[in-house]
Amino acid sequence: MKVYFFATCLGGMAYSNTCVNAIKVLQKAGLEVIFKKDQTCCGQPSYNSGYYDESRKVALYNLELFNEPYPIIIPSGSCTGMMRHDYLELFEGRKEYDRMKEFCSRIYEMSEFLVEKLNFLPDDLGDQVSVTWHSNCHATRVAKCIPSAKKLIKSLKNVTLYELEKEEECCGFGGTFSIKEPEISEAMVKEKIADIQARNVEYLLAGDAGCLLNISGAMAKMGINNIKPMHFYDFLAQRMGI
Asked: Which residues pair with 129 in a beta bridge?
């Protein structure tokens, strides 16, 4: 099966190795992965800031770029929510709506494609470890892909998942929110980190690069080095021995 891989802008800028690992996992699952070199942002920053016309231009660009009828796999629940649901709102009542609806139907967060479409649960080749999981807001409430990620984690025989007490509470990133409201953002991420520390785990896993940048950066500033923040698809590749 051929699939497109949408790396996301943060994937391209800060998590390029994660994108490579994610592609290797998809290939291990038997997929032929197509990477479009001219891909760009999903448009969420402009959309969340109220620049809807500019966001439509980004959406139409993506529609034309990923023009073959292949699934589009994204290693981010946040961008998945934008491209699968928010694009539809942007084009409701417009002439491009039907084309955009078909495009949106091909959007999958990576874990949900692996679990729901391929029933792919990999063998765990790693040592016994303990982890906790942060659920991104958009992934939880818009893309609704968290159950698939957790199913993958729980399928790993040597991984013990300790769930956060306030798992669904925002980490304080929220894209431009963290820039516009830095004091509130700082208070929120400190609460999130306190919850993480209380789990007494070795790894913090997250499926969205923005949240991971925010939490890992705050942990580094606080001098917390006994818990390793890690993108979920880096962790999954590691467990698979890739």
From this structure: 159
